[in-house]
Fold these 3 entries.
Entry 1:
Amino acid sequence: MFIGIDLGGTKIEGVVLDEAYRVCFRERLPTHRHQGYERIVDRVAEMFAACCRAAGKRPRVVGVGTPGAMSLADGTMKNCNTTCLNGRPLRRDLEQALGTKVILENDANLFAWAEALLGAARGYEVVFGVILGTGVGGGIVWQGKIWPGAHRLAGEWGHHRIAEQGPPCYCGGRGCVETLLSGPAVEAYAAKERGFPAPLAEVVRAARQGEVAARRVLDHFLERFGHALANVINILDPSCVVLGGGVSNIDELYTYGREAVSRYVFGREFCAPILRHQLGDSAGVIGAALLAAEGERQG
Ligand SMILES: [Zn+2]
């Protein structure tokens, strides 16, 4: 049995996989990130305890997906959109709270890895995994392995700046991809255009039914998606792109969104598939359990 936990901006998810990597247990808790760092550590510990009960044992190692990454310099967290994690020694604190070895990895890297090994991106040599959710992340898997990069930054397209006058971002930039394509960003833009707030799914429904303002929001979103993703394609030229996160459930991404990518790609030739996640819109948690499996094997 392998336990993985994904520490997301909105929810903490836990999963138990058996030896054949089948999901035996999966549960979600709200993160309540506004309650602060210590409370988040406690909630991960609660989730770990629930997973241990389901697994019937306490494993020697657990994989945890996080936003951002652990700094190479001092082991504290950096680049997390759950900003109370930044500057904190999360791995050390989790190991203390959980009483077991913890392996941390960026959530988008884990998502890409899980889909590359077990999901939609199986068989592709270079996979760019995208998370469109509370934040916007990305991860690169090359020949079945996560490519973390020299500063654990690889794949972080969410902070490419594509609109000089765009909304400010917690990273200090303006017009970052995350400020334009994340679920909360699209909902905020829709509220401005339509004059009232609504969940993203409702905005998309209204657009399909022909509401002009909602249509404008959706078109704008798809155009930005094309612009942003084409920038990545021009550097990485991956064999496939796989999308996850709540926002990836918008069907138009795979049709009009794909066409928008083609318009922005250098030379306009873009044949690689843009795939929908197969392991659920939060496959990162599966990747976290695979990390635990790898950790167990390595002792
Ligand atoms: Zn940013």
Entry 2:
Amino acid sequence: MMRIADIHCHVLPYVDDGAQDWDESAELLKMQYEQGVRLVCCTPHLRKGMFEIPDKEILEQFGFLKEMAEKIFHGNLKVYLSREYYCDEAFLHRLEKNAVIPYGNGGYLLTEFSHRYTPEQFFEYVEKVINYGYRPLIAHVERYPELQDIEDIEELVRMGAKIQINAGSLLKMEGRQQARWAKKLLKEGLVHVVASDAHDVQTRTPELEKAAIYLEKKLGTEEAEKLLWKNQIQIMKSRRRIENGNN
Ligand SMILES: [Fe+2]
């Protein structure tokens, strides 16, 4: 079984539309673990007017989750915390105040976008995030109706963004068009991270083992390991680059 790092999921309970309670949270962690996941980074939503739980409360909840994971997995499952940031004006204010929880050592932020944004708006936000010294990991890139050209994804990558797709998209759990586009991006070598984006134990479940089998079959073991573990570790270890006076 392949070792997997899941760095986009909503397993922290009571903070967004993810896990409803501690039972569901434990269940999700167990499902991930059984599929080969050995590192989980919880990424609760932050979106003005929708998911606004402050970092302080998130950190407190995460403390409990860490204790729970320790009790269940005895150190065999590492858990970390970051957030999934919706790109809007409020997010830019946050960056200005440096009030974000990046991945691991501080280099990357998980960013999601409006379904109405044009490619130009994607470029603008990516540029701004980079100007603040972070690099964006673009959440489930296959989902955005206006972002359907290979050239636009290439440009985002050239700018310094990394690209994440959902495991479920590869398995046709999120519609045929999304599956087709996700697979095309994989084939073009434009995907860096496959993650579960798991929300619950019923419908938006972690499906990483199936995704691992698919990736290994299509791209070989080495490439599958990059998409499920190695690139994630690199993202966790990466540091913020503060050199442009925007700090
Ligand atoms: Fe998400």
Entry 3:
Amino acid sequence: MEILDLLEIVDVSRRFDAFLALDRVSLQIEAGEFFTLLGPSGCGKTTLLRLIAGFDQADGGDILLDGKSIIATPPEYRPLHTIFQNYALFPHMTVAENIAFPLRMAGCAKKEIQSRVGEALENVRLPDKAGKYPDSLSGGQKQRIAIARALVNRPRLLLLDEPLSALDAKLSEQMQLELINLQKDIGITFIYVTHDQSEALALSHRIAVMDHGRIAQVDAPSRLYGYPNSRFVADFIGKCNVLAGHVREQQGDCVTVELDGLGPVHVCRSETNFGVGSRCALTLRPEKIRIGRFSSIPGASDTMTSMSVADTVSPLGDESHFTGYVHDLLYLGDVTVYNVTLSNGILLETLLANSASGRTNFFEVGDRVEVAWSCDAGHLVLD
Ligand SMILES: Nc1ncnc2c1ncn2[C@@H]1O[C@H](COP(=O)(O)OP(=O)(O)O)[C@@H](O)[C@H]1O
Ligand SMILES: [Mg+2]
């Protein structure tokens, strides 16, 4: 038997006058997934969520649930529920009354309401909170109650639009852990919207990165981080150095790239095929770059010491070496960020963990340093 995706979004577009808010978006979301729409403000996340919920109509394309189009189904008949920022529990109602609210609105019988409220509280593992008021609950418990309220109508899908965006960093992190556990417990498909890349990485099974109404990349968090398919995704997900250049040679799994202003480096080939001469960009995470005192990185020292900064490319091997100067540094407690100026003024962000006891300042501003990375440290994208 063929396994169907729970939700299929097929070529969906939405136009506001001349402005194309969604441009032929296609996505498949599987049952039980924690799926996130991630992108900068204004890229179309809420617009897409509203189309899924049925609050708004697409100008083209289709949305299928279990293989059947729901485009013509009014929102109240779609088996899904939307949760907005802050969860909005009614403070003057008990937990049970809060959860019962959508059922009372729908005119459910009293007995039915009672059993469904009990079931929802069991689902979020707070059966003893029925008589409590929201103010007496912790942030995580309030979140569970809001989700219990969303679950009473037994939706197939929960849509969440930036529910944590108003919280401070620490509380948000706690709530993220709660959300992960909750989604695992109840097993319902979550479609989660956020502009916060770290939140998306922490929560999601898969992420769709959006850019100007289009899907830039859909992948698991570690794939997005390690193998971004474009400069935009590399830049948007985590910190990333992006060095532009062109392909000089491709031999087996190794690509020789001539980096603008820096010279040739070896890069392991990605899935994409790069024609010789084509423009490309090397995306390089700060933590993948080694930084050492000038001439301190083994293998580089012998050849490096006699070279001037202007011609700092070492003979090509599995590692790329460059020299530069510490432009500035940022002490962040667990790590220190060193921005290193290479020849031609290119600024490279590197990271050093401050894990050795007593060591926090390895370098000062103006220190001459060497940076090095291995050929599989970076990832090549078209530019
Ligand atoms: N009802 C509307 N009328 C006109 N423009 C809209 C409307 N809704 C959204 N937009 C525009 O569409 C774009 C995407 O909006 P939205 O989906 O809310 O972005 P996001 O949720 O990613 O921040 C924005 O430029 C926004 O101004
Ligand atoms: Mg939005």
